[in-house]
Amino acid sequence: MGVIAVTFLALGCAALLSASSSAETNQKQAEAVHLLENRLLQILEELDDKTQQQDVDERVDTGGEEDALSIRGQPEDVLTRKQGCEGHQTGDQWGSSDHGNCICEAPDRLCYHVDCLLGSKIAKDSNDLWACEVVSSKRGITGSAVAMDKGMEQFTGREIFSIATGVFGVVSAIVGFTVDRIESAQTTDQLNEIQDQIRQLDRKVDELAQSVSDLQLGQEYLQQVILYGRDEMRLRNMLDTQAKMQISNGLYELPGKNVQAWADSVLSHGSDGVDQVLYNLLDMVKPHSGVFGGKSLMEICHLRLINGDNRDKYTEKMQQKAAQIYGLIGGGYSVWITALRIKGRASDIPAKTEEMKSELNTVGTSLLEYTKPKNWRTDWHCGSAYPADNGEAAKCHPDSKFPCCSPHNWCGNTADHCSCSGCVDYRAPQGKGSWRADLRCGAGFPAPNGQPAQCDPDGKYPCCAPSKWCGNTVAHCDCNDCVDYSSLGL
């Protein structure tokens, strides 16, 4: 029975009950209404079950050896599990013969199918993964864009762009230029100015993707790795395609292709649309991401680097990863707004621009924490005789395998490093203290000392949000009910 039929049944029964109320007692009427409500709920539940099953049947064809797999609980976010790893080892990634990108999670492999946007073609990249290539545009970078690349750090008064340094500063300045102008751009010259920055951003993101391709997240996150790869590939394809567009008489053109169809694909509500792909990426990079068990993608990278063989490349790799993520998010929103403009939906652009600014501010503030000068050294020395990158006496990182400084100025994890007179243990106090290791805070989350948990005022996440999570974004530190413990002199 359809929803409309059920609705008419409800209305009809209600009318009959009303008409006969004079002949029945109030008690009987109440019982009849109760029975009717229960029956209607039963019908609607049966209808929902059938509809949901139809949706699943339409979305997923698991025939034979394949098994649909949803990691994030979102119906469109589906990987396919297939038998065997085709000769690969656990953690290996490769492009399969049927245009799928796979990762080995022995004994099986997880794959997603690569579909390229209109105007691009599928091809293998240097890592043997399928990617989407776009035919190059003849239009080059204008002088203004080149000048920006040489003087990024001085561009704009926005706090994040003035603080960011290195390659992160370069990328954030390109994104900032676009943010400031994308809503008001109308003329061909103005739109081409934006396009120049998109092309610059596209090149930077591609370069950074290669630079961090060796940054592995570990075998405990294989499913997340392949999902992140899928979302990154899709955003890069969108950005690549827009970068190759030309503008004539105020209109976007994709030589030899239907730009309207491209915009429809970008704005689609499926798993490959920019809405869902950006949502996935933002969910991965925000603090306390549910995708990585309460950690963000950057936190996982941080932990891998600080305890890995590439510890000496920590600053370089974290800068590159932060810049890549920021560029992907900024580029994704730019693509979104361009698609809205192509479809004639100019009235939707102001709200999307504000959303872009808000998300970039939140993400940028979080990413900055991983690009600041280190207060620890890669050679495991510590103490006043050994200055860190920030110019202060080096500490031992509490997340590293050697979190304690001995009187002999070496980081380690033995009693001679952590428990002696003159030892300094940089980890959070065990069994006492005012904050929790899981970053929860506020009423309902007692600290080891038995009181409502605070946030570590000297730590990475010093502020307690109304959601009772410690963090360092505006939503944690600067709202009405936020508590910034770093400002309280604790």
TrEMBL record:
Residues 51-73 are annotated as: Disordered. Keywords: Chitin-binding, Coiled coil, Signal. Residues 51-62 have a biased composition (Basic and acidic residues). SMART domains: ChtBD1. Residues 1-23 form the signal peptide. Residues 381-423, 440-482 form the Chitin-binding type-1 domain. It comes from the Eukaryota. GO terms for molecular function: chitin binding. Residues 184-211 form a coiled coil. PANTHER family: GLYCOPROTEIN-RELATED (PTHR20003), PROLINE-RICH PROTEIN BSTNI SUBFAMILY 3 (PTHR20003:SF8). This is Uncharacterized protein LOC118419747. It comes from Branchiostoma floridae (Florida lancelet).
